[in-house]
Design a protein that fits this description.
The structure holds two protein chains of two kinds. Chain A has six helices and ten strands. Chain A is α+β, with helices and mostly antiparallel strands. In chain B, helix 3 runs parallel beside helix 5.
Chain lengths: ~350, ~450
């Protein structure tokens, strides 16, 4: 009897405890989104910053200003056109680099294309000779796990082609007083700051009696994104690409095709490449670009690696056949420039290709 | 009451409690995953159509629909069909206490209503919220703005409600950056998280790819081409369109992504012969190589603490997901199922890493794996090639691309794979979605 009484007391106590815990955890589930991974949940609702990383100092990127070339017009597209040099570039000035073309073909061929620059988004402009692209750098010996820290690269490459100050229509560059605009103050606020701001503005619900005037908030129209529309840049790109296709077809340079997930040069491919090699040897001033492509299966990111392997395989085979490596450049387009857009095996096969385009000198 | 019946009463009270707690704690991960939370834990909310004058009538209905969709997606609320629960009210009288008290009886915990008026140039939304829990009419807000922002008003109101009930900012005002095809070219766009109001960001006529947001949401970083044959990584300021070239190395310059504090940009480059992951210090511009392996390494994804990086490597033969510390040390493999696992995306809550997994049937689907590698799930099924998962800031949704409808479109789904919705319409190709960080 007494035992039963004791058991029932125990169960009652357990029940109360469990009900209490259940109540708490139920609220807990409501209040937090997901169990934090190695971070405590924010203690106060709304103080998201507790779980976030440190606040970034709001100053402009320090070492940049002094390296800025004076007289550079600002705005528009970065390198090559106007505005800023690449922050990290493989061009001259890298420590320990040798001016050579190993690994990658030689100087970028200046584009003959007239790529009119219009509007805010200035397209590529390769006016004048561009400097040697690569610089081979012998990587310092690194064992697994060690980290290679390289010296900061100079921010300005004086051999970089400076676009002539061509007048641009309605671009930022024409605004006076915006010369040599410093590269972005970048991330003057971390996401935690931005989020705090949002959160503060949300703490506006108040409980009041009916009849009270409402607190008002204005939402502005317009958008936080600068307007951009396809312009003549767009059209000229499309046109130039067509020309190149035509040139390659006229020369009889044939594409080579690959098996799924593979970059192996098949026997048919070798046939085609022998003919392509013959053309290249007969035209020692001829320059080609071998593009590596993939079909749409797989991830778009990894397909860049696969595309590069395909282009490299083609190039290596051409070199094996005796072609001068200066004549062949490669690029990977992954799955981004498909030949056809169907979801059939035929289309997939047509997309898995190494494609030749003739480059002007 | 006899001792026996008391005993039975108490026992019966404690057992369901125990079961529930057991379910919540031990299977907490599963419960979270199943419906983010099961319906019985969502707050039932009713949204009345916003009353409006005849010209604004269309907006009043649209506003209510947008608000309901936002509340549903938050996973905090279950949006009731008010007709079904027998509530046929058009105009709410603030002083009618009996009406409010009857709401609980109809299963409505929260009621939202209001009016939408047009003034000369503007729309004016007066929104009211009744909170059953506190039995109070919580006076909401008045939103004023041009008619073009009617959707933003609904999004704002939804975020206010989510914030009130959870303490977190909602996701209704977040954006998704993505790539869309335009006559063979691929350009960057930004749209609302629900697929509306797309805005074009680039129009260069070639390829602008793989956008990611800066933590302060002012910039996108992406891969572009110079002269169509040389890749580089570019930063674009959304408000002005101005660009800076961040990285221009030989070979591939792909998959750029900022660390959560913005101090570092991680990316992949094959300048040394094969793709490796590097970080660029955004203040000192120092370049650091993190991986050192003859295989290809790419697609870095930072943990929310910024201390670790998940990435793809094919050092094991085919692509698999690995994790390393942010300085490149302590590399460990995460995925062991299947022969193709790539493109990891670490949830902003840290709980899961989403990635693309290839099934036995050679389908490319979206999978989740816990950062310790212990739990893994496939959360998307069916036909189609899926790619590029990206998380909402609340960690409850994933946006991704899929070819299941023929062409590649963007979709969002809950973290457990439910409520899949298509976000894009028309066009020929959409890809590489990136959800804004706030």
């Amino acid at each position: 009897m007494f035992r039963r009484y004791l058991t029932s007391c125990l169960l009652a106590a357990m029940g109360l405890v469990l009900v209490g815990v259940m109540g708490c955890s139920k609220k807990g589930v409501q209040a937090t989104a997901e169990t934090e991974y190695s971070e405590p949940a924010p203690a106060v609702p709304g103080s998201e910053a507790a779980g976030k990383a440190t606040v970034v100092d709001g100053s402009d990127a320090p070492g940049i200003a002094e390296h800025q070339l004076a007289g550079r017009t600002s705005g528009g597209f970065g390198e090559g056109a106007s505005g800023q040099d690449p922050i990290i570039s493989s061009e001259l000035g890298m420590p320990g680099s040798s001016v050579g073309t190993e690994g990658r073909p030689g100087p970028d061929v200046a584009q003959p294309a007239q790529e009119p620059l219009a509007g805010r988004d200035l397209g590529e402009s390769d006016r004048g000779p561009t400097p040697v692209e690569e610089a081979v750098e012998s990587p310092s010996p690194v064992t697994g796990g060690e980290v290679v820290v390289e010296e900061p690269l100079p921010l300005v490459d004086l051999n970089e082609s400076i676009a002539e100050a061509t007048p641009r229509e309605e671009s930022l560059a024409s605004e006076p007083g915006r010369e040599a605009r410093v590269p972005p103050p970048l991330l003057s606020r971390s996401s935690s700051e931005a989020e705090q701001e949002r959160v503060e503005s949300l703490e506006s619900f108040e409980t009041i009696e009916a009849g009270h005037p409402l607190t008002e908030e204005r939402i502005e129209g317009g958008t936080l994104i600068a307007k951009v529309e396809p312009s003549t840049v767009f059209e000229s790109q499309v046109e130039t690409l067509k020309q190149e296709q035509l040139a390659a077809a006229q020369e009889g340079l044939k594409d080579v095709f690959f098996a799924f997930d593979s970059w192996r040069i098949s026997d048919e491919a070798k046939e085609a490449l022998r003919r392509d090699a013959a053309w290249l040897e007969a035209n020692p001033s001829g320059r080609v670009l071998v593009e590596g492509h993939c079909d749409e299966r797989g991830t778009s990111a990894y397909n860049f690696v696969l595309g590069e392997k395909r282009a490299e395989a083609v190039r290596n085979y051409l070199i094996e056949l005796g072609v001068n490596q200066q004549q062949v450049k490669i690029v990977s387009y992954g799955e981004e420039r498909p030949f056809c857009s169907g979801q059939t095996e035929v289309c997939y096969q047509l997309n898995r290709r190494g494609h030749f385009t003739v480059r002007a000198r | 009451m006899t001792r026996t019946s008391l005993f039975i009463l108490l026992a019966s009270l404690s057992l369901p409690g125990a079961a529930l707690v057991g379910a919540l704690e031990s299977g907490a991960a599963d419960v979270y995953l199943k419906a983010t939370r099961p319906d019985f834990q969502k707050i039932p909310v009713g949204v009345l159509e916003f009353l409006s004058q005849s010209e604004a009538r269309w907006s009043g209905m649209r506003l209510a629909e947008v608000l309901k969709a936002d509340l549903r997606r938050s996973q905090i609320f279950s949006v009731l069909d008010l007709q079904k629960v027998g509530l046929r009210v058009h105009k709410v009288d603030l002083s009618d206490t009996s009406f409010f008290q009857s709401l609980a009886g109809n299963g409505v915990s929260v009621l939202v209503w209001g009016s939408l008026d047009t003034t000369q140039e503007d729309l004016r939304l007066d929104a009211y919220v009744y909170d059953g829990g506190s039995n109070e009419v919580v006076v909401g807000k008045r939103y004023v703005g041009p008619s073009s922002v009617v959707r933003q008003m609904a999004h704002r109101l939804a975020d206010e409600l989510v914030f009130r009930y959870t303490g977190e900012p909602g996701i209704s005002r977040t954006k998704i950056a993505y790539v869309a095809e335009q006559r063979g070219a691929r350009e960057l766009y930004v749209m609302d998280y629900d697929g509306h109001e797309p805005r074009q960001v680039t129009a260069d006529g070639f390829l602008n790819l793989m956008p990611q947001w800066s933590p302060d949401q002012r910039f996108l970083v992406f891969t572009s081409y110079r002269g169509r044959s040389k890749q580089h990584i570019v930063l674009i300021e959304l408000a002005t369109g101005e660009r800076w070239t961040m990285v221009s190395l030989d070979g591939l310059n792909i998959t750029p992504t900022f660390s959560p504090d913005g101090a570092s940009l991680a990316f992949s480059s094959s300048r040394d012969g094969d793709a490796e992951i590097y970080t660029l210090d955004t203040t000192t511009k120092a370049l650091q190589r993190l991986t050192n392996n003859p295989a290809g390494e790419l697609s870095p994804s930072w943990s929310p603490t910024g201390r670790e990086i998940a990435f793809t490597s094919d050092r094991g033969g085919g692509p698999q997901v690995y994790v390393m510390s942010a300085d490149g040390s302590n590399v460990r493999r995460l995925t062991f199922q299947g022969d193709y696992n790539a493109s990891p995306a670490w949830s902003p809550r840290g709980r899961w890493i989403a990635y693309v997994c290839r099934t036995e049937k050679k389908e490319y689907k979206i999978c989740l794996i816990s950062p310790d590698g212990q739990e893994h799930r496939q959360i998307s099924t069916g036909p189609g090639v899926e790619d590029s998962p990206s998380w909402s800031p609340d960690g409850r949704h994933v946006v991704f691309s899929s070819t299941l409808d023929g062409r590649t479109h963007l979709y969002m789904m809950n973290v457990d794979g439910t409520d899949r919705e298509r976000l894009t319409v028309g066009g020929s190709h959409y890809g590489s979605p990136a959800w804004s960080p706030t």
